[in-house]
């Protein structure tokens, strides 16, 4: 789907506030209500807009420990990768899983309440993931930037 300046602006506004009314959205982007609504619906149908979500404050929910874990697998065949990727889906504390280039195979982001909770997760679940050869954990000390917004460029 080719995006014009209105589409891009709609996406920028919705990233900041998915609860904005269609009337307010159309006013902010300079379109009338119906064309704006049609554009949003088209972007949803095309898969550009995946979901409208509520972003939670992890610290207020007592989930203030973020851990980044590099994972190296024993094998790199298709079944091994598939088995690992399926298994991480079942661990709620893993909030992100990325395949990576270089010496490590995956980068996981884990969010937990405490270091003790992470230790339990590590011993009981992470070390038992399929074909894990090595895990290397790094604890985030402070979050300097946090955004869910993608950098949508002008056309």
Low-confidence stretches: none
CATH class placement of the largest domain? Alpha Beta
Helix segment tally: 5
Looking at CATH, which topology of the largest domain would you report? Alpha-Beta Plaits
Strand order of the largest sheet: 2-3-1-4
CATH superfamily of the largest domain: Lrp/AsnC effector binding domain/regulation of amino acid metabolism (RAM) domain
Q: What can be said about the biggest beta sheet? A: 4 strands, antiparallel
The helical percent reads 25-40%
Q: Structural class of the helix and strand makeup?
A: alpha+beta
The average pLDDT score comes to 95
- Radius of gyration using CA atoms only: 20 Å
SSE order: HHHEHEEHE
Overall outline: elongated
Q: Proportion of β residues?
A: 15-25%
| Amino-to-carboxy terminus distance | 13 Å
Task: Please indicate the count of domains.
Answer: 2
Please identify, by name, the CATH architecture of the largest domain.
Answer: 2-Layer Sandwich
What is the total tally of β strands? 4
GO molecular function: sequence-specific DNA binding
Pfam families: AsnC_trans_reg, HTH_24
Domain HTH asnC-type: 3-64
Protein name: Lrp/AsnC family transcriptional regulator
């Amino acid at each position: 789907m080719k995006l014009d300046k209105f589409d891009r602006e709609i996406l920028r506004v919705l990233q900041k506030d998915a609860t904005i009314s269609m009337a307010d959205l159309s006013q902010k982007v300079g379109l009338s209500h119906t064309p704006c609504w049609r554009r949003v619906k088209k972007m949803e149908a095309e898969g550009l807009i995946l979901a409208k979500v509520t972003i939670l404050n992890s610290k207020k929910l007592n989930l203030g420990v973020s851990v980044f874990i590099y994972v190296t697998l024993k094998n790199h065949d298709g079944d091994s990768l598939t088995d690992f990727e399926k298994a991480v889906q079942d661990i709620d504390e893993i909030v992100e899983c990325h395949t990576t280039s270089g010496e490590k195979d995956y980068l996981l982001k884990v969010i937990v309440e405490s270091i003790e909770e992470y230790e339990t997760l590590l011993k009981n679940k992470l070390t038992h993931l399929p074909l894990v050869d090595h895990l290397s954990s790094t604890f985030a000390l402070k979050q300097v930037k946090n955004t869910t917004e993608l950098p949508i460029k002008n056309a």
